[in-house]
Design a protein that fits this description.
44% of the residues are buried. This protein has one domain: Spore Coat Polysaccharide Biosynthesis Protein SpsA, Chain A, CATH 3.90.550. A seven-stranded mixed sheet has the order 5-4-1-6-8-7-9, sandwiched between helices. Strands 2-3 form a two-stranded antiparallel ribbon. It has 218 residues and is α/β, with parallel strands linked by helices. It is 29% helix and 22% strand.
């Protein structure tokens, strides 16, 4: 299996915005299309990711016309042997890795528009330093007693050689990103920004983001 390059340049990384979920905690709404400052969340994420990588893709499974209008290449989840409408973010990983034209793929969740602006760079540096094929971002600890950073498995850098592994893991019924990553050389990468990975999983969390945006732009 290929080892990481000595240096991973932005043009060696393809960015993938994960917008293929069911939005169950959002009442079934398509989270990537929910508005923040009059712009869909997925578009916020794509624009934030664009300067960090060579190109950006969006993974979505419904409202495809709306996503295509954002101007980025669109990918749907790969079909699985067993019918399952929303097998989770790893299905987006597999689709992204199958279409990735670069050695590396970095993924971000569409409901987390303030992820670090140096996300790809930091993950790439860690992948090289630890000779890893997967680098997973972590947010600051939420439990003062443990002081352990919290893994954010939808924010990770993956070597394209793992495309087959992701497909096989899904076909065998696997769904958990961290369980799949544990099969390969991987590392956890802590980030210090406390709100960087705040996500809008529910209408209330989206309302908080909207209120925060209004305060920020006053």
């Amino acid at each position: 299996m290929p080892l990481p390059l000595p240096f991973i340049a932005p043009e060696h990384i393809t960015g993938l915005v994960l917008a293929g979920g069911q939005g169950s905690r959002m009442g079934g709404a398509d989270k990537g299309l929910q508005l923040l400052a009059n712009t869909p969340l997925a578009l916020h994420c794509a624009q934030r990711l664009q300067p960090q990588v060579g190109q950006v893709l969006i993974n979505a499974n419904r409202h495809l016309d709306a996503y295509q209008a954002m101007g980025y290449a669109l990918l749907q989840d790969l079909p699985l042997p067993e019918a399952e409408a929303y097998p989770g973010p790893l299905a987006g990983f597999a689709a992204g890795l199958a279409a990735c034209p670069t050695p590396w793929l970095v993924t971000v969740a569409c409901d987390t528009p303030h992820f670090p602006q140096n996300l790809a760079q930091r993950l790439a540096q860690a992948a090289v330093a630890h000779n890893s094929l997967v680098a997973i971002a972590c947010s600051p600890a939420t439990d003062a007693d443990s002081q352990r950073p919290v893994p954010q498995p939808t924010f990770c850098l993956i070597h394209h050689s793992l495309a087959g592994s992701a497909r096989q893991f899904l076909a065998q019924g696997g769904r958990r990103v961290r369980q799949w990553a544990g099969l390969h050389a991987h590392c956890l990468v802590p980030f210090d920004e406390p709100q960087a990975f705040y996500n809008a999983n529910t209408p209330e969390e989206l309302a908080w983001l909207q209120a925060d945006a209004q305060v920020t732009h006053r």
